[in-house]
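Re-run requested by the PI after the first attempt was lost when the workstation crashed. Everything re-entered from the original request form. Ligand of interest: xanthosine-5'-monophosphate.
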Amino acid sequence: MGKETIVVLDFGGQYNQLIARRVRESGVYSVICSYRQDIEEIKKWDPKGIILTGGPNSVYEEGAPSYTTELFELGVPVLGICYGAQLMTHLLGGKVGTAPVREYGKIEVTVKNDTPLFEGVSDKTICWMSHNDYIEKPAPGFVNTAWTDNCPSAALENRDRNLYATQYHPEVLHTQEGTKMLSNFVHGICGCSDSWRMDTFVEDSIKAIRDKVGDGKVLLALSGGVDSSVAAGLLSKAIGNQLTCVFVDHGLLRKNEGDEVEQVFGKEGKFDLNFIRVNAQDRYYVKLAGEDEPERKRKIIGEEFIRVFEEEAKKIGAVDFLAQGTIYPDVVESGLGGESAVIKSHHNVGGLPDYVDFKEIIEPLRDLFKDEVRKVGLELGLPRELVFRQPFPGPGLGIRIIGDVTAEKVRIVQDSDFIYRQEVDKAAREYFEANGVEAPWMPNQYFAALTNVRSVGVMGDERTYDYAIALRAVRTIDFMTAEAADIPFEVLQIVMNRIINEVKGINRVFYDITSKPPGTIEFE
Ligand code: XMP
């Protein structure tokens, strides 16, 4: 600890991580704690300020999440957002009820800008509202500092006690001056300086890793994804060749990816570490032969990874630390941090592998959000293509080939996917150069998948009977829901032409327009 920290007290709102990220973007470290955590736990952070998140409940419902009023006696500024604002009001003697008019979406709010939260904010500003309840009567000592036509208490303050509240969501980008408001809270009201920066994070982490590891040995499973690559870069800077990275090429990576990872971390690269590449392609293809059931395929790929990694670990012998690329959302979502995601258990946290002889786990990125991990990657000098790599599932192309997996099908999907990504990236770059902003259709994840459909076609004078490839592109914020991206038809046509001409075995191209739900992003 020791650094200026804002505690985000989570009441189950969908934006809990967003609030914490925004605080960090304004240069202040933040952590997410669950409302189930005792106040003593909160105090241990020695917070400079506390933000209460939104949540799905009504404060007057039985069993609704609540908190001890001691929180407001700590002498630490508190900002309640949405449910957090209502809870603060309810606990401090005001009245919350069902709003006569439910507000949802972008709403114009009038603010009193001679107040600390709204310093430098316009008199009328667009804010993002989403509420059924509202504050009917402020708690004693509170005054309204912002309002809308239908909501008299869009924001409130009790300046003497340093308590602030907003009915709308300043963390959401639709709230046009939300970043300013949050910055006013953490800097102006809480008095935090700009102390959270990725260059100092790298320096501090290197020191912390050295202190922890001493002259011990560290083993890391490197997948080539962003998190494990940045972890490898950071560890290598800290402890050099006391680090051994095992990179298992399961033959289900994207085209050239295995070689790219080797170029960065292998002998020719600029990182000092022991890099072991295991070319296990054939082993995987043998194990997967004839298997077409998705969950079985996933299981086989996962189990085989453990076998291969275990064999390598045995050769290396006992190590002191097993490193993992766990990041902060993994920690929060496994229920160890905040509230909203006790839903999902994550393979990186909790379930420690028992097949490697090590004393302790080391997780150098455990405190970082994904965008921060990327910044650290750039600080460390990792190539941009690697740092901004799209999400890629652990089972790799194994779940982008419907039906059984063969080396031939892997080649087909790799080549098609390569062309597709090349053309989308090119079109996106051209759009950016022409317009100065990112293309509105730019997907967050896009890839080709091989369907199990074969159909008749003609090539020259020849009849063909080949596979159909499917192109997927989605726009999503959290990967829990997604919409198909409307990549321009001209771009898709170029991709179609190139795939049919350049990839042997494909004579038809489909574009998948399914949303999630009901679909998933991947095909299996
Ligand atoms: P779905 O297909 O569930 O994907 O809509 C949501 C996100 O998760 C990724 N994904 C996986 N990642 N192992 C992973 O590490 C997997 O088995 C897996 N399945 C899906 C997917 O790429 C998308 O980003």
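Saved to the shared folder this time. Residues 407-435 form the longest helix (29 residues).
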